Amino acid sequence: MNYSSFLSKTKIYILGLIVFLILAPILMIGVKKLTIYFGAQSQGRPTTPVSTEKVKVESWSRSLISVGSISADQGINVTVSLPGIVDKIYFNSGDQVSKGATLIRQDTSVLKAELEGLKADQQLNSIQFERMAKLFKVKKISKSELDRSEALLKQARAKVKAKSNEVQLKTIVAPFDGLLGIRQINLGTYLQPGDPIVQLSNVSPIHIDFTLPEKYINEIKIGLVTEIKVAAYPDQKFTGFVTAIDPLIRPDTRNVSLRATFDNKEKLLRPGMYCEVNAIIESKQQVLTLPETAIFFTPYGNSVFVLDRDQNGAKLKKKIVSTGDRMKGRIEIVSGLYEGEEVVTVGQNKLREGMSVSSINILNSE
User: Fold this and answer.
1) Could you list the residue range(s) of the whole structural domain that residue 356 is in?
2) Residue 6 — pLDDT band, cuts 50, 70, 90?
């Protein structure tokens, strides 16, 4: 009887020991977590540091942004109107030429010989007409014979003039002041009408062609100040004015086409360049701004986290905002904030409304 009781007590002790060994680690982990939790609560510090910046007022010009292409005031491929062999070349690639400057001359030896023959015919017809006029005065010939002689003289004069024009057309001149491109011909080249000789462009003034959505048609007008930037000169702005507005809206894009004109006296802008366009529709005005990184963009609205400070510290408060124009990494705040409010600029996706923030972990950026 005593032996059986001893065995029962032993089993109970062993079971108790096993249960203790199992539960002890669990209890220790639980105590450690509670210690960490209450320790963090007693310290009152956020686990995620944030960077903030105060909403500030800046002076901005309201503008419409687009992209455009640069085109010459006048630009053509110089060509010939008559076939022939190049006899003389009077220009070099890249020359600046004036209107009327001779560029090339084609061989005119055959045409000049034909012209001499036509001039001889003209002279003969002129002599015959004078003789017929004298005979008509003494009534030796009829009026019809005199008229026939006069007609022959006029035909001879017309042929001489036509041939003289052909000779002149063999000399190609610049139709306007401009800058020549790369020469496309050599001495002895046989040219057909339409064959290119050289590109001629007038680059001062120069034009920028761009488009804007039709909803801005009421804000667009002739004389609108336009600024552009090109990749070749990233630190330089060029200023011009809108000089033409297409009266038609493109049905495929619902955009309106505009042309702005720039002096380009230094000839830095060249036809074919791509450019960024800012059409300034309002002069400088005071606007509230923040870094673009401060805005949490969603399809349902844009928001920011604002620091709500009191005597117990600072908490995060979420606010819905309306945004406007963007400029150099900053964005206009149209509504939802006021000047001086402190806004989180980085790491919004790790934050939640009501989270306490310690000033130790705030990196203020003035």
Assistant:
1) 50-61+286-365
2) low
